[in-house]
Amino acid sequence: MDSSTTLVAAFLGLVEGLTEFIPVSSTGHLLLAGHFLGFESAGKTFEVVIQLGAVLAILTLYAGRLWSVFSTAPHDAQSRRFILSVLIAFLPAVFIGVLAHDFIKTVLFETPMLIAIMLILGGFILLVVDRIAPEPVHDDAMRFPISMALAVGFIQCLAMIPGVSRSGATIVGALMMGSSKRAAAEFSFFLSMPTMAGAFAYDLYKNRDVLDASAMGEIAVGFAMAFVSAVLVVRWLLGYVSKHGYALFGWWRIIVGTAAVAGLLTLG
């Protein structure tokens, strides 16, 4: 792996960590950045695997709460209910992700114009929802009703279209079902753990024949950068959205998507 490849991998890892947990589509940003930088990974495995760095960041930051939940689950009904709600929300992504994996990776991931358009559309949706979301009735992400968790899980599946944003879809869904802005972001964090870990494991299995030593070097660099930058973003995000909402991210999506459309039309 030469120095230029190392720098690109580090940059893409930084992009992943900065965008994974905010509703702007980390996959969309990664694929568009890779397209314009001329970066190619076998089976798009790099883009999926470095997300595990962001998952590790969440696990590190929420280790105390997760330990409390799992250690009390044998004798605490609320802990068991929370674990069940996250698992139920995760299930739709398992079935749809496995069934549509090849189409997603070979068609949707290879269509930069679609990604750019979805960034723009998602930006407008985020701006509208930030204004019209009902008054919150759910302030604790660990106490969402099971039916609400399942609905958020189905909405998360929209993010299999790159550019939609996994966190964006889950946050919008939770907000429209009466979640507070902070709780919507936190439930999205919790749901990301099994979802992204599952995507990593399945993608690694599907692409086991195309990985090589050089690819592992790129992945290691991107993984480390994604971990560090994700820790910083998660620490900042909850306080920001509690005070200011999600409009900033809507405008960001529109600007990036519009710039990407312009670049694709002029540069190809």
TrEMBL record:
The gene is uppP. Its EC number is 3.6.1.27. Catalyzes the dephosphorylation of undecaprenyl diphosphate (UPP). Confers resistance to bacitracin. This is Undecaprenyl-diphosphatase. It is found in: Cell membrane. One of its GO terms (molecular function) is undecaprenyl-diphosphatase activity. The chain crosses the membrane at residues 49-70, 82-101, 113-132, 144-164, 184-205, 217-238, 250-267. Belongs to the UppP family. Bacitracin is thought to be involved in the inhibition of peptidoglycan synthesis by sequestering undecaprenyl diphosphate, thereby reducing the pool of lipid carrier available. It catalyses: di-trans,octa-cis-undecaprenyl diphosphate + H2O = di-trans,octa-cis-undecaprenyl phosphate + phosphate + H(+). InterPro entries: UppP. The lineage of its organism: Bacteria, Pseudomonadati, Pseudomonadota, Alphaproteobacteria, Rhodobacterales. Pfam families: BacA. GO terms for biological process: cell wall organization; peptidoglycan biosynthetic process; regulation of cell shape; response to antibiotic. NCBIfam families: PRK00281.1-2, PRK00281.1-4, undec_PP_bacA. It is an enzyme of class 3 (hydrolase). It is a multi-pass membrane protein.
